[in-house]
Design a protein that fits this description.
Helix content: over 70%
Number of strands: 0
Order of helices and strands: HHHH
CATH topology: Tetracycline Repressor, domain 2
Strand content: under 5%
Number of helices: 4
Distance between the termini: 34 Å
CATH class: Mainly Alpha
Number of domains: 1
Radius of gyration: 15 Å
Largest sheet: none
Length: 77
């Protein structure tokens, strides 16, 4: 994932937590992420797709953390 797309995901996640999904507009996201509307739509066809990308990203991050924890346990156990 490129850095700009990751930044959009991070910013959108923060806004969704702060304001709620329904109260956060695409305009809020693009202003906070300092990107154009075209860039947002290049990454995500809709706000719902942005949320799906956030959930997938969080899931992958959680899997990676579990894997690292298991590897550490294997090294010390």
């Amino acid at each position: 994932m490129n850095e700009k797309k990751k930044r959009v995901i991070d910013v959108a996640l923060e806004l969704f937590i702060e304001k709620g999904f329904a109260q956060t507009s695409i305009q809020d996201i693009i202003q906070a992420a300092e990107i154009s509307k075209g860039t947002f739509y290049n990454y995500f066809p809709s706000k719902n797709e942005c949320l799906i990308a956030i959930l997938a990203y969080v899931d992958r991050e959680g899997d990676q953390k579990k894997k690292r924890a298991c590897q550490r346990e294997g090294q010390t156990g």
